[in-house]
Amino acid sequence: MFAWLCVSCNNLDAIHEKYLIEERTYLGKPDSLKAYPGAGKVKLTWYQNSDPRIETTVIYWNLREDSVVHTFNRKPFGGFQKDSIIIDRDLEEGSNNFELINRGGKEKSLVSSVQGEVFGESYIERLRIRSIESIRMTEFNEETGNALVQINWNTPPSNCVGTILRYKKFPSGEEISVRIESTDAQTELEEVGNRLLHPDDILYLSSLYLPVGAIDTLVSPELKQQIVSYKVSAGSWTERDPATGATLNSDEYAMPPDIIKYIWTTVPQNNISILDCDRFGNLDPYVNFTLKLFRFTLNPDNTVDVSGYSNISNNNVEYLVSNTGSNRWEPQRKSVYNPATRVFQMVYKRQKDGENIFIYEETLAPR
């Protein structure tokens, strides 16, 4: 019995000593491992302990299908030392798992692992541009044909640290790039050109994002925005009976000369084709565009569709704006835009159900 106990104890000691030996063969593993997201890349940081046998760190990802060997350069003072690497190849957008193992000679450490986020095209395409609360032309120089434009900004989205706005001054052609900080509520731009849809007179906006912990500032897709000033060089309007088309009051009214109207783009588009106007016919300029709308849609054949409404609140529409041609007596005519002269020949109507129809014809010319 005693002999059996001695053999058993000897076996346990042998097993224990085996594991102690194996444990001593492990190098110190990467400590306090962290991952910082980037655009197509990830930065990894960690601490190496004072183990003098550490020579390299092997970083694995993509289920260990991809890896890189990072040489560890120990500083003379020894002790704990911070190390890092940026992985910028063969990474999938989204979350990636990284495993780090220290090596020295034939020995290695246990594994340290961390999840790292990679920002790619899909993520960047979803970044929103800081929205504009209002844009208006505060001054217009009749001699030079340029304007002073004021932009009021809405609150920036989360992690948005700024917005870049670029344009060319008119007529000098000087390229301007303005950085609008996230704390800025208003921006004024000088010498903005007044040529509708001309690439040098369009404002190009993109917002800058710095997600928490990110090593890169991300740039959103670009938005085209423009405001231009037009005047009514000629025009008239008539009031018609909706049933017969007869002209009421037996008269055609001339539009007052030189009515000023402002036109601007409204939504992010690769090809600007939707424009809003602030003044319907000879009525007062619109102020609240959540309640009123006067919209031009430019078609590929340079015809213009007109749509809109007034005072659409609580389902109470004061009147609707549309193309002509929906009544039997009324000819269908299209408004037309001339890209060469940038002149609009407009014909449109406004009507409230069951009430008289007002038909407008006007020539809108750039100032």
Describe it for me?
- It is a single chain.
- The chain has 367 residues and is mainly β.
- It has three domains: 2-123, Immunoglobulin-like; 132-222, Sandwich (Immunoglobulin-like); 228-366, Lipocalin, CATH 2.40.128.
- The protein contains two helices and 26 strands.
- It has helices at residues 2-25, 121-125; strands spanning 31-39, 42-48, 56-61, 66-71, 81-87, 94-104, 107-108, 112-119, 132-141, 146-153, 160-168, 175-181, 186-193, 203-209, 218-219, 223-225, 227-240, 253-254, 260-265, 274-277, 292-298, 303-310, 319-322, 335-338, 343-351, 357-366.
- The model is unreliable at 1-9 and 16-23 (pLDDT under 50).
CATH topology of the largest domain: Lipocalin
H/E element order: HEEEEEEEEHEEEEEEEEEEEEEEEEEE
Largest sheet: 10 strands, antiparallel
Number of domains: 3
User: Helical element count?
Assistant: 2
Second-tier CATH architecture of the largest domain: Beta Barrel
Q: Give a count of the beta strands, DSSP E runs of length 2 or more.
A: 26
- Which stretches of 5+ consecutive residues score pLDDT under 50? 1-9, 16-23
The helix fraction, in percent, is under 10%
**What's the Cα radius of gyration?**
35 Å
Tell the overall outline.
Answer: elongated
Strand content: over 45%
Give the CATH level 1 class of the largest domain.
Mainly Beta
Through-space gap between termini? 113 Å
Mean pLDDT across every amino acid position: 90
What would you call the structural class? mainly beta
